Write the structure tokens for this entry.
Amino acid sequence: MQKAGLEELAKAMDISRMAVHKHLTLLQKRGLVESFETRAGVGRPKMMYQLTGQSKTVFPKSYGAIASYALDFIEKNMGKEAVEKLLRERQDELFQSYYERLKNFEFDFDERVDELARIRDEEGYMAESKKQRKGNADHILLEYNCPIIQVAEKHWEACSTETQLFEKLLDSKVEATHRAAKGDLICEFLIKEKKEGHL
């Protein structure tokens, strides 16, 4: 099983060692990552990390290829519109399940964004939300893993319907500025809260 240290992970993800450590700690608590010490010669031992067997349910490798093949088949035999319809119907299903949790924070926009990040994190996206201004946004939603990347790389509609889902759930303006399916290290969404009396 592949293993890596903090320095390697921070460089690969283009974030600080502290940020990597924070994510790894959360993943360890969920039983998805394990750590161990290694020693090469003299000096302090180095902490290394690797995915656990349990992580296979969150970071599957083969399902993406099967899903991508199925969408290719649908597009070839029924057209692009059929693929778009299937992905929209899937997003409608997600909306219902996400909404059941988000409705508990109907009057608190910040909490709704945080809860959306928690849901996405539970689904394997390694997500977090930050309340900070960036451009014209109030919040940033970051996803450090993309479980559907094999699908999204060939069927961009999977990403566009996802952004629409976030907009509908949060009743806000959402802009995807970074996408793993386009070669970025993360997916980043800028979220602008709609204010009363403003567009």
Helices lie at 6-13, 17-29, 63-78, 80-102, 109-125, 149-154, 157-170.
